[in-house]
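Field log, afternoon session.

UNIT: design team B
ACTIVITY: writing a sequence onto a fixed backbone
BACKBONE:
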C-alpha cells in the first residue's frame, strides 16, 4: 500500500517493516521434519575482493538439500569441514537420478531467513554436524 502510514510503537509516524533477518532450525522451514533429501555436495573456496579464488585449498563444504516439507525447496548448508567424508557428490547424483534419495539429518542446522527488496524471502544455513539417516518403512 503505497503511502500508507501508521503509528509505530515508539509513537512516531512511519510504515511498519518486517524484521530483516530471522534464525530458525531446520524443522521450522521443513514442516517439522528434522531431515531432508541430500541433492549435492561441493567444496567452498575463499575469494578475494576481485572475485578470483585466492587458494585451491577448500575452506569448507556445502551440502545442498531439498526440503520435502516445503515442496522440495532447495537449501544450501555450509560447514567449515566435510561432515560426510564417506559420501561423494557423484554418489548423491546417482541416488537422485535413480529416485533412491539419501536423507540427511542436520541437528544443529541454523537457518537464516532474510528479506530483500523485490526478491522475497531467502534462506542460508550453517551447521557443524550431519549424518545420513535411513527412514523406516511402515
Amino acid at each position: 500500500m503505497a503511502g500508507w502510514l501508521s503509528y509505530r510503537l515508539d509513537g512516531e509516524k512511519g510504515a511498519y517493516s518486517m524484521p530483516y533477518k530471522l534464525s530458525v532450525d531446520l524443522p521450522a522451514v521443513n514442516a517439522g521434519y528434522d531431515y531432508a533429501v541430500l541433492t549435492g555436495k561441493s567444496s567452498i573456496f575463499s575469494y578475494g575482493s576481485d572475485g578470483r579464488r585466492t587458494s585451491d585449498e577448500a575452506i569448507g563444504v556445502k551440502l545442498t538439500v531439498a526440503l520435502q516439507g516445503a515442496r522440495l525447496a532447495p537449501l544450501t548448508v555450509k560447514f567449515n569441514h566435510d561432515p560426510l567424508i564417506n559420501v561423494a557428490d557423484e554418489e548423491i547424483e546417482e541416488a537422485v537420478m535413480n529416485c533412491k534419495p539419501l536423507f540427511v539429518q542436520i541437528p544443529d542446522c541454523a537457518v537464516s531467513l532474510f528479506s530483500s527488496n523485490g526478491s522475497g524471502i531467502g534462506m542460508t544455513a550453517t551447521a557443524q554436524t550431519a549424518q545420513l539417516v535411513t527412514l523406516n518403512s511402515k
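LOG NOTE: The first strand starts at residue 6 and ends at 7.
NEXT ACTIVITY: expression trials, pending approval
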